[in-house]
């Protein structure tokens, strides 16, 4: 088993950041390490314990390049419409633009998907059976010295990506996680709103 970083549970939860510019594009990622992290992720809860999730792990450069091109197209439309208003959003925009240009070079891409019919109306029950496991995967990767960032921009071209990867129509993609070792592991908690501004006790 891969040696884990010496992090307490609270440290792990609060320092698993969105990593883009600090992804090490030159260091290979053994598939066994990704499998270890996925084994941990599969312990996440799912509706009715049905575990209808699927994990598409991409390592082939040609396949990654095709997916990255769809991501790039979607990102260009997204970045053209965004508002950069301060230093923080400018930094985020720069980081996001960087990932767009290097996504094909990230050692591993993982797409989390869920099998079943998408319900009409509120879909929380459906996606609640996938997204906790995807976040557990991000945590498990961080514990092993790897990083990722949560992105869904490729879903603008979900059907085209499904055709590239041979994903059947009843399987719906939910998240794309670019996976690489990180340049350093000294991540810190990020700035967040004050808890009392979003906390509602016994009602709104």
Walk me through what this model shows.
By secondary structure, the protein is an alpha+beta fold. It has one domain (17-185): 3-Layer(aba) Sandwich (NADH Oxidase), CATH 3.40.109.10. It has seven helices and four strands, in the order ααβααβααβαβ. Strands 1-2-4-3 form a four-stranded antiparallel beta sheet. α3 (61-81) packs antiparallel against α4. The chain is globular. It starts with 8 loop residues before the first helix and ends in a 23-residue tail after the last strand. It holds the Pfam family Nitroreductase. Residues 17-178 form the Nitroreductase domain. Keywords: Oxidoreductase. This is Nitroreductase family protein. Belongs to the nitroreductase family.
What's the arrangement of strands in the largest beta sheet?
1-2-4-3
- What's the number of structural domains? 1
How many strands, what sense, and barrel or not for the largest sheet?
A: 4 strands, antiparallel
**Named CATH topology:** NADH Oxidase
Number of strands: 4
Number of separate helices? 7
Residue stretches low in confidence (pLDDT < 50, at least 5 long) are none
Roughly how much helix do the residues carry, as a percent range? 25-40%
CATH architecture, by name, is: 3-Layer(aba) Sandwich
Structural class call reads: alpha+beta
Shape: globular
**How large is the share of residues in beta strands?**
5-15%
Distance between the termini: 46 Å
Task: Output the helix-strand order.
Answer: HHEHHEHHEHE
Rg is 17 Å
